[in-house]
Design a protein that fits this description.
Shape: globular
Mean pLDDT: 89
Number of domains: 1
Largest sheet: 7 strands, mixed
Helix content: 40-55%
Distance between the termini: 47 Å
Strand order of the largest sheet: 1-9-8-2-5-3-4
Structural class: alpha/beta
Number of helices: 11
Order of helices and strands: HHHHHEHEHEHEHEEEHEEH
Low-confidence stretches: 1-9, 12-16
Oligomer: single chain
Amino acid sequence: MTRSTADPTAEPQRRSDNRGFPFKKRMQYYIIRVVLGVLGRAFAWMPEKWAYATGIRISLFAYRKAPKFRKLARRHLEIAFGKEKSPDEIERILYDTYVNYGRNLAEYLMLPHKSDKWVENKVTFYDPQWHTRTAFEEGRGIVSLGAHFGSWELVGARLGIYHYPLAVIVKAQRDAVFTKLLMETRTKWGNEYIFKTRGIKEECYRQLAQNKLLGLLADQNATRGGVFVDFFGVKASTVRGPAEIARAAGVKIIPSFPARNPDGTITLHVQEPIVPSRTDDEEADILETTQRCAKAIEDFARAHPTEYFWWHRRWATRPPGEPESENPNRIEPPPHPGIK
């Protein structure tokens, strides 16, 4: 099959080798790359069963030995489910999330060394209403609403193999060298990745005009320029891009999220399309459509809580004038001994 010829080193960065960072930060990045490199080579020759078991062990080591991150994820689970689940239930979700992300780690490390057939056997699509095909037949492209669920790198590879005309908008990592290595793996499967820069909206419209699937993630805290919508009943600053771009281009937003099956395979669940609001009030339209996007992500996270990346500081930015007493980040999750 034909692979992408996109230059994976074309990320819009002023630095290509991290020389502008302090020595300590450069060393941290270097150590992380070395560790990932060693693990990647080890996982390349491991039997698959061993690789998954090792990934889970690494993740559970972090669960037990990195209390700062465990507490952060538990706080976010408390914000999302504290009114409806007990501390023990929340801790079980957290533990199982670590286990699941151990499997995701194993797949991420194995992926560069695997064949198309291996990827095809791992990921299937569930789109019984043919939402994606129907939208493509309209010829105007699709905004694919994504979020940090499950093994997203593996799902991206599967979409590339399936020959979906996929262009994903991504943010460059702080470590420029790691960004280059990551892009080499991602573009291997035929997808196009576009870095966020000035003029990115025009590039998005150009991709949609070519009837492409434009992948946009919409589940991280928007520090600037976001709109506040409800996410698990709490206001969350949310990127306006999917709603704004889909409204201007006159295209549908199709949420698509992966979840792991009992047999270890992954299914990408294609959701009901979101048709952007189009009235004379652009800001109101963007707010209303963004709320529907957030609701789609929340509903899937409720149905598959161990798939979601609970470490993101989703509620970090607060609405102007919000009383401190209503700030969800003040929540202190009840102490829990953890699951042994």
